Amino acid sequence: QVQLRESGPGLVKPSQTLSLTCTVSGVVITTNPYYWIWIRQPPGKGLEWMGAIAYGGSTYYSPSLKSRTSISRDTSKNQFTVQLSSVTPEDTAVYYCARGGGLLPGDSWGQGTQVTVSS
């Protein structure tokens, strides 16, 4: 059974870069046909798809976040990471990692991690 777990700092200062890692167990992240996805939910708002990295390493980004987002992976650790640069308080959210059979997440999600952007 696949399990995903987000990790990273809970507090980031404005203008800094937010970096979160998702550790995956139960499946190798290079397994076809899986995509590994980052999603966030700001307080009081809906889910926002941020981007994904495919089993082959191709990356995909939300147009609204593309200029500030980078998704990478460490296959030796079975992890994938999102970096969001130049954060503002509007980037405060619960951040989730998830698995999908394509660019949309399926049933396998991490528990989410709260990130607050504040000085």
Estimate percent helicity.
under 10%
Strand order, biggest sheet?
Answer: 2-10-9-4-5-6
Quaternary structure classification: single chain
Number of strands: 10
Arithmetic mean of pLDDT: 97
Helix segment tally: 0
Q: Tell me the distance between the termini.
A: 39 Å
Low-confidence stretches: none
What would the principal axes of the Cα set say about the shape? globular
Main β-sheet description: 6 strands, mixed
CA gyration radius, whole angstroms:
13 Å
**% residues in beta strands:** over 45%
Overall structural class, as computed from helix and strand content, comes to mainly beta
SSE succession: EEEEEEEEEE
How would you portray this structure in words?
This protein is mainly beta. 0% of the residues lie in helices and 48% in strands. It contains no helices and ten strands. The strands form two sheets. The protein has a six-stranded mixed β-sheet, with no helix packed on it. A hairpin with a 4-residue loop joins strand 5 and strand 6.
Short account of what is shown:
The chain has strands at 3-7, 11-12, 18-25, 35-41, 48-54, 59-61, 69-74, 79-84, 93-100, 113-117. With 119 residues, the chain is mostly beta strands.
Kindly list the characteristics that best describe this protein:
119 residues; mainly beta; 6-stranded mixed sheet; 4-stranded antiparallel sheet; 10 strands; 0% helix
SSE map:
Layout: E1 3-7, E2 11-12, E3 18-25, E4 35-41, E5 48-54, E6 59-61, E7 69-74, E8 79-84, E9 93-100, E10 113-117
Parallel strand pairs: 2-10
Antiparallel strand pairs: 1-3, 3-8, 4-5, 4-9, 5-6, 7-8, 9-10
